[in-house]
């Protein structure tokens, strides 16, 4: 644990960083809207606990998710290995259209790096994932990873009057954040 998943969410939603962020128990829900071109994208984010004892609850959160961010700590190889297991699980059990992003967090600690950028990038490409290194502490690429997810989401069908009337320029994106349980 302690890969910075909750810190990424708090940086994105509230623009805040707390050096001593409390461990998530169960799950926390946050929401944030951003404008993308002529659409407002509403992110509904489930920040789920990564400890192994909560693993059995995970499908409850990612079952209806349109996107997931799998976070690992670039200074701990075992978190990258565990992230791969989460990606496999999502690809096997989540929606077939789910957008999966891989975030190599704690890029501000590059001098302590144990996972090379190229290794994570190659893995992401092989698996069809979005990939960015992020830093919740410095805000590096935090907004960018969410915007990249929003851009990769399928567009609403403007020909369908029910969809157009219901959404009126708002695209909801349910995000499930996954992270390592070391």
From TrEMBL:
SUPFAM superfamilies: P-loop containing nucleoside triphosphate hydrolases. One of its GO terms (molecular function) is GTP binding. Keywords: GTP-binding, Nucleotide-binding. CDD domains: Rab5_related (cd01860). InterPro entries: P-loop_NTPase, Small_GTP-bd, Small_GTPase. Pfam families: Ras. It comes from Chiloscyllium punctatum (Brownbanded bambooshark). Signal peptide: none annotated. Belongs to the small GTPase superfamily. Rab family. This is Ras-related protein Rab-5B. It comes from the Eukaryota.
């Amino acid at each position: 644990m302690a890969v910075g998943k909750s810190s990424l969410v708090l940086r994105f939603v509230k623009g805040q960083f707390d050096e001593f962020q409390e461990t998530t128990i169960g799950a926390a829900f946050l929401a944030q809207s951003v404008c993308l071109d002529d659409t407002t994208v509403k992110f509904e984010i489930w920040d789920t606990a990564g400890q192994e004892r909560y693993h059995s609850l995970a499908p409850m959160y990612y079952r209806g998710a349109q996107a997931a961010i799998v976070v690992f700590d670039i200074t701990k190889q075992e978190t990258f290995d565990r992230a791969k297991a989460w990606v496999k699980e999502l690809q096997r059990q989540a929606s077939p259209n789910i957008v999966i992003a891989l975030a190599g967090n704690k890029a501000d600690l590059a001098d302590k790096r144990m996972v090379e950028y190229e290794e994570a990038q190659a893995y992401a490409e092989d698996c069809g994932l979005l990939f960015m290194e992020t830093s919740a502490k410095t805000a590096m690429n935090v907004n960018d990873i969410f915007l990249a997810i929003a851009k990769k989401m399928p567009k609403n069908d403007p020909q369908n009057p029910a969809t157009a009337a219901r959404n009126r320029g708002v695209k909801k994106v349910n995000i499930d954040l996954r992270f390592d349980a070391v």
